[in-house]
Amino acid sequence: MVEDVRKNGYDISGDVMKRPPHGYPTDHSRTNLLRHRSLIAARSLGCEEWLHTPEAVDRVLSAAADLDALLMWLVRHVKRAA
Hints:
Blueprint: H1 2-7, E1 11-13, H2 31-34, E2 40-42, H3 55-77
Antiparallel strand pairs: 1-2
């Protein structure tokens, strides 16, 4: 899912630890994702003329749709920190 989001032009960032959390081997297949304390998917929408028109709603909703699968996975599988 993260690769699909990247392919849609989003940058993936966040607070990343140096190593995976305790209990996970350093050679785990998802080490790069396990190291994230937070996960941010962002893409600049620019500051074009459309920003002040009804088209802005369509562009923002399109971006939300791009991220929907990733967000739903996170909601289902990631537990909140205490």
